Amino acid sequence: MRVVIAEDSVLLREGLARLLGDGDIVTVASVGDGPGLVAAVEEHVPDLAIVDVRMPPSHTDEGLRAALRVRAARPGFPILVLSQYVEERYAAELIGPGVGYLLKERISDVTEFLAAVRQVAAGGTVIDPEVVLQLLGRQRKGTPMDTLSPREREVLALMAEGRSNAAIAARLVVTDGAVEKHISAIFSKLGLGPAPDDHRRVLAVLAYLER
Predict the structure, then answer these.
(1) What's domain 129-211's architecture?
(2) Counting Cβ atoms within 10 Å, is residue 110 exposed (0-12), middle (13-18) or buried (19+)?
(3) Which end of the chain is more exposed for a tag (fewer CB within 10 A), N or C?
(4) 161 touches 119 (CB < 8 A)
(5) Which CATH class, in words, describes the domain spanning 1-127?
(6) Strands (DSSP E) along the chain, which ranges?
(7) To the nearest whole percent, how much of the chain has pLDDT over 90?
(8) Strands 2-6, 26-31: parallel, antiparallel or unpaired by DSSP?
(9) Domains of the chain: which residue ranges?
């Protein structure tokens, strides 16, 4: 696998590249700003870009805006956001299949991180539950999302994290059947009927997120 890293801290860039290398993931370019990310993806056509949110010159949301430019030019291009912050303004617009959003301080296992990198590169979605909760917290009152029970919201957060039904059951200490019932209720309350071309597990998180 070939990746581009966009991170303004040289030490973090080098450390991340070495960690990825230990997992047989090749860093073809490492850059420190948004324009550099766009140019590197265009030049190297990697399998994935790992992007920080806040980069020069304003250190606000340049990373996410650059990621959106990359996705506009290359629809579906895999992006893994790796940041200390949840940038709500653009996060909901970016998140979808082939996108991950992980918080740096909550990554505690290298093996799990490398697995998340590969999952996103393969077109999957991996989202830190804290990111999901912050985005869900922006919902207007009276939307279908408000009809979910607290347990259904927990299940939804774990779904967005990329967990299987069995993994959710183990995390919540419930049966697989109970998880299936919760997921069925989530789909029903959010109006997500069966559709062969839709990723309902992703849409359950994204459909009612405000931008």
Answers:
(1) Orthogonal Bundle (1.10)
(2) exposed
(3) C
(4) no
(5) alpha beta
(6) 2-6, 26-31, 48-51, 79-83, 99-103, 125-127
(7) 44
(8) parallel
(9) 1-127, 129-211
CA–CA separation, 28 and 99 (whole Å): 19
Residue 196 has pLDDT above 80, yes or no: no
The residue written with tokens 């979808």 in the block is: 96
CA–CA separation, 88 and 34 (whole Å):
18
Question: Closest by alpha carbon to 100, among 124, 134, 70, 76?
Answer: 124
| 4, 28 contact by CB (below 8 A) | yes
> Which residue's entry shows tokens 């994935």?
48
Determine the residue type at 140: R
DSSP 32: S
Q: Give the list of residues 6+ apart from residue 50 with CB closer than 8 angstroms, or none.
A: 3, 4, 5, 6, 7, 16, 80, 82, 117
Q: In this model, does residue 134 exceed pLDDT 90? A: no
pTM reported for the whole predicted model: 0.66
- Amino acid 209 reads L
| Among 107, 124, 114, 191, CA closest to 159 | 124
- Gap between the Cα atoms of 62 and 166, Å rounded: 38
